[in-house]
Amino acid sequence: MNLELAKHIENEINNKLHRKLVFKWQTIGGGSINSTYKISAESFNYFVKINNISVFENGFKEEALGLKFLKTHGAITPKIISEGIFKGNIYLVLSWIDSIFETNKFWQNFAIQLANLHQNKSEKFGLNYSNFMGQLVQKNTFFNDFPAFFIENRLKPQVKLAFSKDLLQIKELKQFESLYTQLDSFIPKEKPCAVHGDLWSGNFIAAPNNKAVFIDPAVYYGHREIDLAMSLLFGGFSEEFYKIYKEIYPLEKDFNFRKDIYNLYPLLIHLNLFGKSYLRSVKTIVSQF
């Protein structure tokens, strides 16, 4: 841990609290990209995320904007305490959220919360700034229809990157081109809505009040099935979650058929970040269509 950076972060917190606390730093698990800590002093607890500016040139600005986007649309998020850049290091300080085991009541509440988030509509698919999925840039150029948005902003950039890394070959490129021509017939027509964008089990916290706290967003106005498909990619949530969501906000038929198309995007992200262990999943899905 960079002691000068730690002192800078503590000073920022103390200035906001009008105190002179000395914090204890504890390393915690927080993914494969950033260094993460819990820092504590007296009754004050915070979550701190740190990285090098070479990873995210704007610091954690886009993540902070994403949390504000979610909060503006009614979602529960940690409070942003501080975000900035210090001597080549970037940091984000959030309020600490205690977690509990996910109860049936939690999953019911989470389904309601997500359905409510998806009720926030927009006129176009996209967002007025780019952000990140993992550590890869996520373009959010506006489009009037979701298939075009998904092809141009999601699939094509990742396919191009994977091809440049020799992870995909000409055969797969041709299969993707064929898939692009079919997407409009597969995906239901819905108005753009606010989405989390990276909704898997590591990106929410089950809080003591049995409500979900949304973290690590990759937000934009998209198709709501994106969030539901992503939630199923790495094992899925409780059956109660999907049952309640569908009761509140029913899905069009054949979602289970479509979910693999949506999940091509996060799988391509993982392919480009972590290598060939994700190649079979990508090839299987794209060859199906």
From TrEMBL:
Instruction: List the keywords (alphabetical).
Output: Kinase, Transferase
Query: A Pfam family name for this chain?
Result: Fructosamin_kin
Which domain of life does the protein's organism represent? Bacteria
Q: Known InterPro entries for this protein? A: Fructo-/Ketosamine-3-kinase, Kinase-like_dom_sf
**Gene3D superfamilies (UniProt xref):** 3.90.1200.10, Phosphorylase Kinase, domain 1
One GO MF term on file is: kinase activity
Q: Which PANTHER family match?
A: FRUCTOSAMINE 3 KINASE-RELATED PROTEIN, PROTEIN-RIBULOSAMINE 3-KINASE
Q: Which family does it belong to?
A: Belongs to the fructosamine kinase family.
Could you identify this protein by its name? Fructosamine-3-kinase
